[in-house]
Write a structure and sequence with these properties.
Elements lengths: L1 H19 L18 H16 L9 H8 L4 H20 L2 H30 L8 H4 L7 H26 L4 H20 L2 H12 L2 H7 L1 H25 L1 H8 L1
Helix pairs in contact: 4-9
């Protein structure tokens, strides 16, 4: 009598257990999800499927957190290396031509790599070792860019290009008179800046500001926010007075 009752109860138990733990497609918790494979193989199969599904998304070279840590000097050695290298390149461009700077940089890099290659070859010949090429690890790195990733990058760039074109059309065709006047004043000020500084000098100043202003602002945030708020209020009041005196803007506000 016990066997029939157990037989009648087994379908309900099986259905409830399968309903409590639904298996994901391709990899689940049930034993039938990965036939003829162990738990470790199933996990690796799931990881491979996850990587293949996420590989279509473009991977940025530098994330926002990495750039933030760089300009805020979280890692002094890394930031110092990037800041010193870029500053040296910009100073070299200010003193020499672009062709000369690029040529010297390539020659310096080739001198280091060739010297290291010859040194390792001599060491291997003396010690009679078979370590192989010293840059074998880097030569085996796959740096090819797939067509799908290239199209993803191009689509992301086209979004910014389209926004810039719309902004330029709006400013030059005077959709908003105040915005166009702001651009005109800014360009007028840039003529004086261009008479004193050239492009390389502006890049050097921009780099100095990028690597100094954020860390200073982080240290004196309260005081800077106070004075910036005062300047913003005064600028806003001046802009409102100018807009009130312009007939087209006043009429637009009245409507």
């Amino acid at each position: 009598m016990a066997e029939p009752s157990a037989a009648t109860q087994s379908p309900s138990v099986s259905s409830s257990s399968s309903g409590a733990e639904p298996s994901a497609p391709g990899c689940g918790g049930s034993s039938g999800a990965c036939p003829a494979l162990g738990a470790k193989s199933c996990g690796s199969s799931c990881a491979d499927s996850f990587v293949s599904s996420s590989s279509s998304q473009p991977v940025s070279l530098f994330s926002t957190s990495q750039v933030h840590d760089l300009i805020f000097w979280r890692d002094v050695k890394k930031t110092g290396f990037v800041f010193g290298t870029t500053l040296m390149v910009l100073l070299s461009l200010a003193a020499f031509s672009v062709i000369s700077v690029v040529s010297y940089l390539i020659l310096a890099l080739l001198s280091v790599t060739i010297s290291f290659r010859v040194y390792k070859s001599v060491i291997q010949a003396v010690q009679k070792s078979e370590e192989g090429h010293p840059f074998k690890t880097y030569l085996d790195v796959d740096i090819t860019l797939s067509s799908e990733a290239f199209h993803n990058y191009m689509n992301a760039a086209m979004v910014h290009v389209n926004k810039a074109l719309k902004l330029l059309i709006r400013l030059f065709l005077v959709e908003d008179l105040v915005d166009s006047l702001k651009l005109a004043v800014f360009m007028w000020l840039m003529t004086y800046v261009g008479a004193v500084f050239n492009g390389i000098t502006l890049l050097i100043l921009a780099e100095l500001l990028i690597f100094s202003v954020p860390i200073v602002y982080e240290k004196y945030k309260t005081q800077i926010d106070h004075y910036v708020g005062i300047a913003r209020d005064q600028t806003k009041s001046i802009v409102e007075k100018i807009q009130a005196k312009l007939p087209g803007i006043a009429k637009k506000k009245a409507e």
